[in-house]
Amino acid sequence: MNDWAPIAKEYDPLKAGSIDGTDEEPHDRAIWRAMLARYVPNKGVTGDPHLTLFVARLNLQTTEDKLKEVFSRYGDVRKIRLVRDLVTGFSKGYAFIEYKEERALLKAHRDANRLVIDQHEIFVDFELERTLRGWIPRRLGGGFGGKKESGQLRFGGRDRPFRKPINLPSVKNDLYGEGSSDKRNWSREGTRDWRTRDRDHERSRDKRWPEKERSWTWGESERERDSKEERSRGRERKDRDR
């Protein structure tokens, strides 16, 4: 729990498949594939990975010139690589943008995320393929983020960070008074308070008891008196009828 962080420091497919990074068993087949995969980053990719941004969810009509126009606002761009299909040449909807300075990289990472380009809200993050140890791409069951419709959600990245897990053992200890000494003292004091309240309640009830008895006896005498009057009236009516 002490080393927990919303963003993963290294890639673990099992943790990435968990909403809080605490799963012990994979819950879908893609996680099994990612755990068994032995992925080697593309050695043909050049450039400084620590100065490169990953830009996704692009409009398929967006071009390199449009990306350069937008991302040049944050600093000098060294290189733009829009990933295209090898057969058709069409855009796959994501790109890598390398800056010349780290300051421009951080500024673009902070301000360009969820920016709308060609009617599409884009997603911006650091490049993870060459910087995050153990990285497994999406096509092998890894990656981060995902859509709910597909059911293959991955956590630990900027798009879907880990949620803070609930520490169940500490909650159990607190419920049974097994926590710290301060909590134990507090619970004991609380029991004393309840006991004193019970005693006060008993005393007040004892004081009120005679009053209730008097009210009950008064009520009973009234009832007896009414019943006697009813009986006498009934006898008078019978005498008249005779």
TrEMBL record:
BP terms from Gene Ontology: mRNA splicing, via spliceosome
Subcellular location: Nucleus
Comp. bias regions, Basic and acidic residues: 147-162, 180-242
Gene3D superfamilies per UniProt: 3.30.70.330
GO molecular function: mRNA binding; snRNA binding
InterPro entries on file: Nucleotide-bd_a/b_plait_sf (IPR012677), RBD_domain_sf (IPR035979), RRM_dom (IPR000504), snRNP35_RRM (IPR034146), U1_U11-U12_snRNP_70-35kDa (IPR051183)
Pfam families attached to this UniProt entry: RRM_1
Record region (Disordered): 147-242
Entry keyword annotation includes Nucleus: yes
Domain of life: Eukaryota
Keyword check for RNA-binding: yes
GO cellular component assignments: precatalytic spliceosome; U12-type spliceosomal complex
SMART domains tied to this protein: RRM
Keywords (A to Z) from UniProt: Nucleus, RNA-binding
Domain RRM: 51-129
Name of the featured protein: U11/U12 small nuclear ribonucleoprotein 35 kDa protein
The species this protein was found in: Eubucco bourcierii (red-headed barbet)
GN (gene name): Snrnp35
